[in-house]
Structure formats: structure tokens, C-alpha cells
Write a structure and sequence with these properties.
three-stranded mixed β-sheet, single chain, 10 helices, 3 strands
Length: 218
């Protein structure tokens, strides 16, 4: 097992992939509100632009900082050298072709959802006159689904990095992290109660051990 696989933030964000289909279900419900008012291609483009554009731009220019959960993010100066090495890998190992391919795949999924949206119309709680609200909700849900696809895809690429490449990676400069990565939410000193190093190495009460050793020597 690679040493950096003990980093809990990697697995937390990889598991976020499970939220993608749930968000796509909300897209389906949003598109089912009322009948199209604008041309079909225009409504489809509107939802696609809201959901795909911001996340694709983020991942290609300032990748998502995985050392964050919900509305909290670790301050850059609180990251260990190993964690900053991982950030370097996100800059070098994330393949732009795969990132764009994931976007194209989600665009195809959106078109399939748009085609079958009328099937969900009977269960939508909103009145048909709220069609534009449904479109907006679908766009925001599509944005969330795209985020929960792209971040796990990037994490998966980093997880496939060899141990030698990880060790050779230079820790990302602390002062450049806010400029080169998207650091979401409120910055805090600590999020998880256990760091990767602490989780991998159980603590031993040094005081009692020293006392026992002294007693034995006597």
C-alpha cells in the first residue's frame, strides 16, 4: 500500500462520487417542472452552462483543494509536507483530457435526462408555471453533480501515483496555495480529529513507558 493512501481526505472526496447520481436525480425533477417555454436547445444549453462551465474552468485552472469538508477548509499553513506533496500531484497528475472527457460524459447524461424529464412531471411538487425556477434548480443541481464527479476523478488519478513519484514530489509552496487552488469555505486550523500520520501510528503513553523502563533498570 502506498504511504499517502492513509490520507483520509483522499478517501472522503473519492467517496463523494456517490452524491453525483443523487444530484442528477434533482436535475431530473427540476427539468420536469412545466413545459419548455424557450427552444429546447436553449434551455438545454442554459442548464449545461450553469453546471459545466464553472467546475470545468476551476479544475483546469485552479483545482479544488481537497483538504476541505463542506464549508470548512484547512489553512494552507496547517498542511503537512505530505499533504502539500499531494497538492503538487494534483497540479501535475490531473490529466486535462480525462477532465474534459468527464465533462463530455456528464453532458451526454444531461441530454438523456432532459429527454425523459416529462416522466417525472406527476411527482414534481411545483406548479408548471414555475418552469424557470425548475430550470434554475436543475442548473444548480447539475453544478453539484459535476463537482462530485470531477473531484473524485482527480483524486483517483492521484491515488494511482507510484510511491516513488510521491516521494519525489516537491511540497507545494504554502504562499502559492490560495493563488493556484480553489480553497472553499471558512479556513480553520483543524477539521478531522486524526491526521493521516496519527491514524497510521497509534499513540503510546511516553510517560508511563519511561517510568516502567526506569523501574526495570533499578
Amino acid at each position: 500500500m502506498r504511504s499517502f493512501w492513509t490520507e483520509p481526505f483522499l478517501w472522503i472526496h473519492l467517496a463523494g462520487l456517490a452524491a453525483c447520481p443523487l444530484a442528477l436525480e434533482l436535475v431530473w425533477l427540476g427539468l420536469a417542472v412545466g413545459d419548455p417555454i424557450l427552444p429546447v436547445w436553449l434551455e438545454f444549453f442554459l442548464v449545461a452552462a450553469i453546471g459545466l462551465g464553472p467546475i470545468l474552468w476551476m479544475q483546469l485552472t485552479r483545482p479544488f483543494d481537497i483538504f476541505s469538508i463542506l464549508i470548512f477548509a484547512l489553512k494552507p499553513e496547517q498542511l503537512t509536507q505530505e499533504q502539500r506533496r499531494l497538492l503538487s500531484l494534483f497540479k501535475t497528475k490531473t490529466n486535462r483530457v480525462i477532465t474534459i472527457a468527464a465533462t463530455v460524459l456528464l453532458l451526454w447524461v444531461l441530454w438523456q435526462i432532459y429527454r425523459v424529464a416529462p416522466v417525472a412531471a406527476p411527482v414534481v411538487p411545483l406548479s408548471p408555471r414555475w418552469h424557470f425556477l425548475g430550470l434554475l434548480g436543475a442548473g444548480l443541481a447539475f453544478l453539484i453533480s459535476h463537482l462530485f464527479l470531477q473531484v473524485p476523478v482527480a483524486v483517483a488519478q492521484v491515488l494511482l501515483t507510484s510511491e516513488s513519484e510521491f516521494v519525489a514530489a516537491t511540497p507545494y509552496p504554502v504562499e502559492k496555495i490560495p493563488q493556484d487552488f480553489t480553497v472553499p469555505g471558512v479556513r480553520v486550523n483543524k477539521i478531522l480529529s486524526l491526521t493521516a500520520k496519527e491514524a497510521a501510528t497509534p499513540s503510546v503513553p511516553a510517560t508511563s513507558s519511561s517510568a516502567e523502563l526506569t523501574a526495570d533498570q533499578e
